[in-house]
Amino acid sequence: MMRERGGKLFSLLALSSAAVLAAGGATADRGAGGMSDEDKIEYRKAVYKVIGVNFKPMGAMVKGKIDYDPELFARNAQRVADVSEMALEGFRGGPHQGNTESLDAIWEEWADYRQGTERFQEQAQELASAAQGGAEWPQLKKQFIQVADTCKSCHDDYRED
């Protein structure tokens, strides 16, 4: 019970913090003040950090490095799905100047980048739904790999090594 409440609290805090930043980003895009380029870069780094922290244990389970824990897998899959919905906010109005690994190709090919991010969001939601719905482990592993592949495709094209 404590683990579940702690997980929900973490998700709520992460989502609340990101939502506040996203609201600032929306304001900045309208030219009414708001976030600096560096703030937007930090926002998107935070979003992807939360995704990565939750993604890694699932990857370790898929690779057999740690035992499969259905509760942890489902919780982390839901977090990834929830936070993935915020990913585009930190890129709006770019390119942004500052400490970033993002390539200018994101903005030069915005429609493609946006489509890739939306595909990631859809795949992440499918994984969360399958994990919450009690899908069998082979199905979850297959869906996890699909989510990971969507991540990799964007990293290959839009992120410095």
UniProtKB/TrEMBL annotation:
Signal peptide: 1-22
UniProt cross-references to InterPro entries, sorted A to Z: Cyt_c/b562, Cyt_c_II, Cyt_c_prime
Keywords: Electron transport, Heme, Iron, Metal-binding, Signal, Transport
PROSITE patterns linked: CYTCII
Keyword set includes Lipoprotein: no
Family matches, as SUPFAM superfamilies: Cytochromes (SSF47175)
Name by which UniProt lists this protein: Cytochrome c
